[in-house]
Each structure stands twice: as structure tokens, then as C-alpha cells.
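Input C-alpha cells:
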């Protein structure tokens, strides 16, 4: 965690089945001021349990996961009563995948290869807005 006591920490949960990529995500996102990585998983069921247990604010998930896709995860989060911002960060970034993820409830969708820095900047902005407002930030649809 890299936040001062006066800030409300943005709790981020990572869902990625490739360990080196998940480690890179944890290092980059965790270095953002006001962000704490509260958990990691490589498949949907473990992710849902972790998200519920940690009071996650933001989920960053790949489209392809161990034993399935991130679609089930997105749909389950969208049905949840807890406000969670979902960000898809994937190499499967065709227009069809993008539209399917947004329709399933993702607020943001980024290509791992070409938009990783944009995903970092988005998390940084959400953390800053959360800290500035002192309350939960609700995301909007962005493509």
C-alpha cells in the first residue's frame, strides 16, 4: 500500500491466470498512491469469494481465466449489491469481446499490450477521485 493515513485506500482485486502478468499488475497498480492490492485469483469462484471477503472497490480481470472466461465473473459482480468497479484488462481486445464485456457489466476495457498504461492511469484517477471525495466512486462506461 502506498497511501497516507488521510486518504481512503482504493481496494483492488486482481483476477488473472498468468502469474507473471498478475505479478506485474500487482507491482504497477500497488505502486499507485492510494491503492492497495487486497487479493488475487486465477479463476472466477475464488475471485468472487475474495472480492466478497475483502470489500473490494475495483476488480481488474482478464477475459480468459483458468477453467473459463471472465464473463461469469463480470455478470456475478454486476448482480452484486456491493458497488464494485470492473476493469477488463486482456489480450482479447476485438470489438466483439469489448462489447460483450461492457454488456456484461464492465465499466472499463483495456488491451494488455497497448493500453496497460491507460489502465494504470484510470486506476490512479479513480483512487484520486475517491480520496478527494472521501466516498465510493461509481464508474461510468468507458471503452
Amino acid at each position: 500500500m502506498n497511501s497516507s493515513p488521510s486518504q481512503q485506500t482504493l481496494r483492488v482485486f486482481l483476477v488473472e491466470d498468468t502469474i507473471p502478468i498478475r505479478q506485474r499488475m500487482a507491482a504497477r497498480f500497488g505502486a499507485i498512491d492510494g491503492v492497495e492490492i487486497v487479493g488475487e485469483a486465477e479463476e472466477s469462484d475464488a475471485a468472487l469469494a475474495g472480492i466478497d471477503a475483502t470489500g473490494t472497490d475495483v476488480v481488474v480481470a482478464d477475459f480468459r481465466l483458468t477453467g473459463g472466461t471472465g464473463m461469469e465473473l463480470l455478470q456475478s459482480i454486476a448482480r452484486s449489491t456491493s458497488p464494485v468497479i470492473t476493469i477488463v484488462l486482456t489480450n482479447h481486445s476485438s470489438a466483439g469481446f469489448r462489447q460483450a464485456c461492457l454488456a456484461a457489466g464492465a465499466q472499463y476495457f483495456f488491451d494488455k499490450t497497448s493500453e496497460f498504461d491507460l489502465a494504470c492511469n484510470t486506476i490512479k484517477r479513480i483512487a484520486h477521485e475517491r480520496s478527494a471525495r472521501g466516498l465510493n466512486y461509481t464508474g461510468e462506461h468507458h471503452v
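The domain at 31-133 is CATH 3.40.50.2300 (Rossmann fold). DSSP finds five helices and seven strands in the chain.
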